[in-house]
Amino acid sequence: MSTLRVIGVEYLNARPLWEAFRGDAAAERGLGAGIVDLRLAPPSELARALAEDEADVGLLPVAAAAAMGELRLLRNMAIGARGKVRSVAIVAERPIHELDSIALDLSSRTSVVLTRLLLARRKLAPKLFGALPPQAIASIGDRTGALIIGDPALDLEDRYPYRLDLAEDWFDWTGLPFVFAAWFARPGAVSRDQEDLFRIAKQKGLARTDQIAAEHSARSGLSEESLRSYLTESIRYDLGDEELAGLQRFWSEGAKAGLLPAATPTFEEPRTSVSRPSLDSILLRAADGERLSASDGVRLLREGSFFELGLAADAVRRRKHPKGVVTYIVDRNVNYTNVCTTSCRFCAFYRPVGHPEGYVLSREVLGQKLQEVKDAGGVQILLQGGLNPDLRIEWYEDLFRWVKKAYGLGLHALSPEEIIHLSQLEEISVRRVLERLHAAGLDSVPGGGAEILVDRVRRKIAKAKCTSAEWLDVMRVAHHMGLRSSATMMYGTVDTPEERIQHLMKIRDLQDETGGFTAFFCWDFQHESGTHIAPGDNGTHLYLRTQAVARLMLDNVDHVGASWVTQGPAVGQVALRFGADDFGSVMFEENVVSSAGTTFRIGAEAIEKRINDAGFKATRRNVRYDWLTEPS
């Protein structure tokens, strides 16, 4: 029997399901050493580990399982409640209908989706914002409540006067138990014999609930009797017919609200099931605006008909933008320095510190570039560069103030990587960096440096760069501050179709949380002289296919841009029939991809002609996609 990679959640309520697998306990309790390799993580980490093939089985929040798709449930094991659960609740100083805002503990997507459903049922619409548990708790005030889950919720059980228990409210609504998490396995990962191990572990864990409660009481200071009652009365560990009905109802309500893909619980291998949806049905659902799962996206990317993908993506574009208008912006991509410390293998633009070809643009050169933008009717500049350790935050603040005062241009400036670099250089938080830059004139954050938001890929192509979680967290902070940003994807290095879809899922999840992404752009790796990594998948057909799938997956991102700068204006024109509604930017100059040999450049008049020739009206926009001219 091969070793199973199992990932479980750290919470007290999960311990009876996995503790028999821990270290020496596995051998002591008859499960055998080396059969299960168990690690523990927060609930939000479980889906990523399963999706990125770092685990075979996970005690997964059920919303994350629906979002992934094509996972198999293990029989008769879950974490649920029939009525009050105690450990998933909105707590506040006021009744819930009087709250202006609610901080969401983002540890479990299931609880966040359930919160949205229960609020909608009450016709309540407080502002929702994500936070780590300590921040969520600290934010509780006069008209701000917090969704708290897991062990922290038990710690706060009697601290606040108003408490909405989400499982209890669900039961009052539906009359059904609520299932928060269950063991889910990747396709083909778990045999029937191995599944028996999980049932044995559950039996042995439930036999030790008294000891588990006593141990947790000694660590937390909470009442042992209360914890015992929680484990034996509040939490239900079965997954019978009623629990399955509750799970199906939750998935159905989530899909109806556009928060989850359509899903059905199954104990069978999904990829061999006769009920597996056809590609046509996936395309029809996407075209109609239904949310797709990650497995749907992978199937479309790998198997979908090229022209049918285009038709479905075009249907989404028409539904989102029914007036037949395609936007573009007059701005300039200014690379203020090429000095960089990250040494990305795919980049031909950067120069290391001390290199004779390294530069920092002078104010005189910058002024000439900015004046050209003003003279052409431009409204902003896209300002990005390398990670230059000689440029401190005061340099950027002075630059931003000068740009605003002298030219009045919008500043779409500094990728998450650059913001993290400044945070580390100045030894201040990302939030403080963004606050200072925003005060100096920063208007929005470009989505550069995302590449593929899967750390296996990032370690291969740019090991010195920030992690995917760090990139996303910069965007999260920016969005919560009211700054908007774009999202990007550069594929075609060492990434797989599965990893490209994971990238899109992470963008979609953050957009669900913040709503701060204005648009999405993708392009393939431009492999030419100066780059230090072999090309992977690329080409016009793959670009159009990838953009179309992105349009279908990113149901909550309003705009998709055609990346004609890398693909060429003619392909950019075709991209308008593969889901794009924006033609990007006039190219006064571009230095990064052009360093690898890509040199496409066209002006505003040529862009409008391309848009018109493709059958659309053209209009200029700003960074927030407000129209600046009448469509023509």
What are its keywords?
632 residues; alpha/beta; D-Maltodextrin-Binding Protein, domain 2; TIM Barrel; 3 domains; five-stranded mixed beta sheet; 26 helices; 20 strands; 43% helix; globular
Structure report:
The chain contains 26 helices and 20 strands. 43% of the residues lie in helices and 17% in strands. The chain is globular, with a radius of gyration of 26 Å. Helix 13 runs parallel beside helix 15, helix 17 (393-407) packs parallel to helix 19 (430-440) and helix 21 (468-480) runs parallel beside helix 22 (497-514). The chain folds into 3 domains: 4-80 and 181-269, D-Maltodextrin-Binding Protein, domain 2 (3-Layer(aba) Sandwich), CATH 3.40.190; 88-174, Periplasmic binding protein-like II (D-Maltodextrin-Binding Protein, domain 2, 3-Layer(aba) Sandwich), CATH 3.40.190; 329-602, TIM Barrel (Alpha-Beta Barrel), CATH 3.20.20. The strands form 5 sheets. A 5-stranded mixed sheet has the order 2-1-3-10-4. The termini are far apart. It is α/β, with parallel strands linked by helices. Helix 16 (363-375) links the parallel strand 12 and strand 13.
The total count of strands amounts to 20
Mean pLDDT: 91
CATH superfamily of the largest domain: Aldolase class I
Give the end-to-end Cα distance, rounded to a whole number of Å: 67 Å
Helix content: 40-55%
Can you tell me the number of structural domains? 3
Using the coordinates shown, work out and report the CATH topology of the largest domain. TIM Barrel
Beta-strand share of residues: 15-25%
Main beta sheet: 5 strands, mixed
Envelope shape = globular
Largest sheet: spatial strand order: 2-1-3-10-4
CATH class of the largest domain: Alpha Beta
Q: What is the CATH-assigned architecture of the largest domain?
A: Alpha-Beta Barrel
Estimated structural class = alpha/beta
**Poorly predicted ranges (pLDDT <50, ≥5 residues)?**
592-598
